[in-house]
Write a structure and sequence with these properties.
Two copies of one chain form a homodimer. Helices cover 71% and strands 0% of the residues of chain A. Chain A has a domain at 58-194: Tetracycline Repressor, domain 2 (Orthogonal Bundle). The N and C termini of chain A lie far apart (62 Å). Chain A is mostly helical and 201 residues long. Chain A has helices at 3-22, 29-35, 40-44, 50-73, 80-91, 93-96, 104-112, 118-143, 153-172, 179-194. The interface between A and B is large, with 46 and 46 residues. The structure holds a DNA duplex (30 and 30 nucleotides).
DNA sequence: GACATTAACGAACGATCGTTCTATAAATGC
DNA sequence: GCATTTATAGAACGATCGTTCGTTAATGTC
């Protein structure tokens, strides 16, 4: 990795954790230059525009999400076990990745949902991909015989995301120490409702 | 209402719908002055600081939420009927109130969850109050005999908020036309799981 | 209708924003 | 080790930010 790529990545690391606190829209080249001990212009040259930097942060977030949440979970066998692994990794990916200020992706989703442009498009693309991954994973859990054949994977994925979002908010804003426990409880209820009743009398 | 209060309210109306699009943090006095056809300084005088204006917007949001979502629902009898009314009003309160860019409160929650200060405190206060209202309403549904006595109102309210949040995101960012339907489906599943089985064979 | 009060304006402030340009320093390829 | 490309710094730009100040216009009161 050449020198250029190296500092670019260092900047991105800093931008990533900063965005976690102030949001992707709240990023400032001046502050970022200060934190990385670079000049504004030197830092700027790596991206060409602020928007390009913001896009890079969003892409970085998606990549880390895939690495930290999805990839390890896919080592679990298809079915509910894999789904549960996703939920568990998901719930503490803000600790795993360097996200002191909470989930960048969720924050960006709320921030750009009504501001057309490349940033919104990027967030949208990422969330659509995530939704599809979830739907597929649920569908495979049906195929594997863990969930009932009449399960609606879209509905299941929809509810999964809701559980994650409220957990995030409860933990960060309401300081609810039970947020993770409640999220897992909700997940279990979801699974139980759609589970194949293997041992009914 | 004197002239002062009158224009203050007009500014607040404009700020409210603007914040819906760009977020409470994205509000700008210059742009707001432009939209209301006032001078920056004239507008500024009504609030004394930008932060005070932002706080006023947050309080306005909470007040409208109580009026549009909660108050009408409380005309329903205690129990699941009232809960359902809350969910229905909640799901389209962004249409009812003047919120072209989505739920201000949720956006602010994501925006300020890691930025200590009066704004975060205000958002937090509002969401805690909402949570308490939901918990109480669920508890009353238990008392009324609609939900099983072992229902955990906190858990129920937790899941309700998740349903709302994912519905909001799905609708606004993913352009999912089925978001509301899925949210109601999730709500029904929630109710069914905790419902007293009145007519079991 | 004169007077006190309040609301609104216009100009300017210092700070910061993203961005551009030119020049120097460092890294790279031979 | 030299030449060339690449990375960084520094200064400056125009724009916008929130805020302050002094003045004028409008409102409310007796």
């Amino acid at each position: 990795m050449g020198k250029g790529e190296q500092t670019r990545q260092a900047i991105l690391d800093e931008a990533f954790s900063l965005a976690s606190c102030v949001g992707v829209g709240g990023l400032s080249i001046g502050i970022l230059a200060e934190r990385t001990k670079m000049s504004k212009s030197g830092l700027f040259a790596h991206f060409g525009s602020k928007e390009e930097l913001q896009l890079a942060v969003l892409r970085e977030a998606q990549q880390r999400f895939a690495e930290v949440v999805l990839r390890p979970a896919f080592r679990q066998p298809r079915g509910v076990a894999r789904l549960r692994a996703i939920v568990l990794n998901w719930l503490d990916w803000t600790r795993e990745a360097n996200l002191p200020g909470g989930c960048v992706i969720n924050a960006a989703a709320a921030e750009f949902d009504d501001q057309p442009g490349p940033l919104r498009d990027e967030v949208r693309r990422g969330l659509i991909a995530l939704r599809r991954t979830l739907v597929d994973t649920v569908a495979k859990a049906v195929e594997a015989g863990d969930l009932r054949p009449d399960t609606d994977p879209e509905q299941f994925a929809f509810e999964l995301e809701g559980i994650y979002q409220v957990a995030q908010q409860s933990r960060r804003l309401l300081n609810d120490p039970d947020a993770d426990r409640r999220a897992l409880f909700a997940f279990d209820r979801l699974v139980r409702d759609y589970a194949v009743e293997r041992d009914k009398e």
